[in-house]
């Protein structure tokens, strides 16, 4: 790396972890983190949980919401510049452009994350979105004045947000095309158990429908029914922020920047990490797409080490925890499909095992931490699940 130092684009977990790892691994060049976000780096997971419920206040110092106090950046000599997006990368000149200014890099880490997909129906712009702290503030303020809400999309963020709004006392309708939440991704039996967790908080689930329009009175469904409500949240998935990488000629597949296990992109001295990356995992033996907090931290850790000249690779089994109502659900998986599964119910929870070609590829648990830990090892080693699975054909 030249003396121009490390430039990181993005101040989410991947970007901050890359800056931290670069320093920890002996990187001595200047470090600049450029972020479009207007806030100091913060935790995203609480935004659909404690923060939305009103159980977590915003205090910049000493509060769990923020990743680090301002001194943390000063102590590590990390120059955090936020509020303006990087608009261009010149891989030949080794520069990025922010607000018309060209900033040189010796190594560049692209940790631009992903943005929520807007609702593609008439009036869709009326629906609130949830990704940044600014979005969460808008949603929380709207919820404070609302009696009813419609949440569109029953992925983990939709389920979490619906439950949190219901726990605030709103009358909440969760609308999704699946018979049960995440039937396509996790299977019908797993989806039933997620549905139980969501409805236990008072949420009403409307299955098998899609939204055709949004207007001032609420949401219109494709069966002609209108659900009146005071606020609408669209939680219908995200699109990785790979536009500047594509424009710079980097190898991008399905909107993600393709990287090796060392997080190197197709351009010299450019790395990508986190939700925007399509990274090779050495344990999986293939590229996998992940959208989880800890995996973004792990990616950033590898990218920062590499930028400092220390060899590192990504090998961890992806995973995350979700909280729906008061219940935690934990998931380890490569996330690219399975052909057989088995649900095992416990007294106060469940485990779902997923296999592909006889190897464990996922485990979803609720109050079954031993299975969660066991599953991680089985997935890493490509061993069979501890129970017999049945073919499900996803
Ligand atoms: C409400 C919510 C709840 C979640 N809950 C969980 C959970 O419980 N568990 C879990 O594992 N995961 C959860 N996630 C997902 C997790 O937060 C993400 O996987 C993680 O934040 C990805 O990290 P990242 O650093 O790759 O991207 P991000 O956190 O999205 O950060 C990307 C950064 O890049 C910046 N940026 C984008 N484009 C540019 C540009 N052109 N120039 C400059 N800066 C740019 C953005 O402003 C942002 O700062 C949740 C996400 C949300 C939104």
TrEMBL record:
Cofactor(s), by name: FAD
GO molecular function: oxidoreductase activity, acting on NAD(P)H
Domain of life the protein comes from: Bacteria
Keywords: FAD, Flavoprotein, Oxidoreductase
Residues covered by the FAD/NAD(P)-binding domain: 6-300
One term under GO cellular component: cytoplasm
InterPro entries named in the record: FAD-oxidoreductase/Apoptosis (IPR050446), FAD/NAD-bd_sf (IPR036188), FAD/NAD-binding_dom (IPR023753), FAD/NAD-linked_Rdtase_dimer_sf (IPR016156)
PANTHER family xref list: APOPTOSIS-INDUCING FACTOR 1, RIESKE DOMAIN-CONTAINING PROTEIN-RELATED
Protein name per the record: NAD(P)/FAD-dependent oxidoreductase
């Amino acid at each position: 790396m030249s003396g121009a130092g490390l430039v990181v684009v993005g101040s989410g977990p991947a970007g901050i972890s890359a800056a931290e790892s670069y320093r920890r691994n002996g990187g001595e060049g200047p470090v600049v983190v450029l972020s479009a976000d207007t806030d100091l780096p913060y935790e995203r997971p609480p935004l659909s949980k404690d923060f939305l419920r009103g159980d977590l206040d915003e205090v910049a110092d000493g509060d769990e919401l923020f990743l680090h106090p301002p001194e943390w950046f000063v102590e590590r000599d990390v120059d955090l510049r936020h509020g303006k997006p990087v608009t261009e990368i010149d891989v030949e000149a080794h520069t990025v452009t922010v607000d018309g200014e060209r900033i040189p890099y010796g190594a560049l880490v692209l940790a631009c994350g992903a943005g929520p997909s807007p609702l593609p129906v008439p009036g869709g712009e009326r629906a609130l979105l949830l990704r940044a702290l600014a979005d969460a503030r808008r949603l929380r303020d709207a919820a404070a004045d609302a009696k009813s809400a419609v949440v569109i999309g029953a992925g983990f963020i939709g389920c979490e947000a619906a439950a949190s709004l219901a726990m605030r006392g709103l009358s909440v309708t969760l609308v999704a095309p699946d018979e049960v939440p995440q039937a396509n991704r996790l299977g019908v039996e797993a989806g039933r158990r997620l549905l139980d967790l969501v409805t236990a908080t008072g949420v009403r689930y409307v299955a098998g429908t899609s939204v055709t329009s949004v207007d001032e009175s609420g949401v219109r469904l494709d069966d002609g029914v209108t659900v009146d409500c005071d606020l609408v949240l669209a939680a219908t998935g995200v699109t990785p922020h790979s536009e500047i990488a594509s424009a710079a000629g980097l190898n991008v597949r399905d909107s993600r920047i393709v990287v090796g296990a060392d997080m190197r992109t197709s351009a010299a001295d450019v790395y990508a990490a986190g939700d925007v990356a399509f990274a090779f995992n050495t344990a999986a033996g293939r590229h996998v797409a992940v959208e989880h907090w800890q995996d973004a931290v792990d990616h950033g850790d590898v990218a920062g080490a590499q930028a400092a000249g220390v060899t590192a690779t990504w090998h961890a089994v992806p995973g995350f925890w979700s909280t729906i109502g008061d219940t935690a659900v934990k998931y380890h998986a490569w996330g690219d499909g399975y052909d057989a599964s088995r649900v095992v119910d416990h007294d106060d929870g469940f485990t779902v095992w997923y296999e592909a070609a006889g190897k464990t590829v996922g485990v979803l648990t609720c109050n079954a931490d031993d299975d969660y830990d066991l599953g991680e090892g089985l997935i890493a080693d490509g061993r069979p699940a501890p129970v017999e699975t049945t073919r499900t054909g996803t």
